[in-house]
Design goal:
single chain, two-stranded antiparallel sheet, 88 residues
Length: 88
């Protein structure tokens, strides 16, 4: 079990980040009932997470369109392929 102060600190950070992510998702057009699925989590060991949950396909596309993928696209030629185990 972690100390309560560590839990509260991790929870506050996760809550803050989740709130920022919910607001960003709403700005790109996701409805509030979908952004409400974004929530803060803290494990028993004190590790903070933000759970996004499942999004309908149309909302996932809106999210992808809002992400700055240009940096990823520039590095696509340098990206390694799938590991041998992933192809079967």
């Amino acid at each position: 079990m972690i100390p309560m102060t560590q839990y509260k600190s991790a929870r506050a950070e996760a809550e803050h980040t989740a709130a920022l992510l919910r607001a960003a998702l709403q700005r790109v057009g996701l409805p509030e009932e979908e952004t409400a699925r974004v929530r803060a989590l803290v494990t028993g060991r004190g590790r903070a997470y933000v759970e996004v949950g499942a999004l309908p396909l149309g909302s996932a596309v809106k999210l992808l369109n809002a992400l700055p993928l240009a940096l990823v696209m520039d590095r696509a030629d340098d990206a390694p392929g799938l590991p041998a185990e992933a192809s079967g």
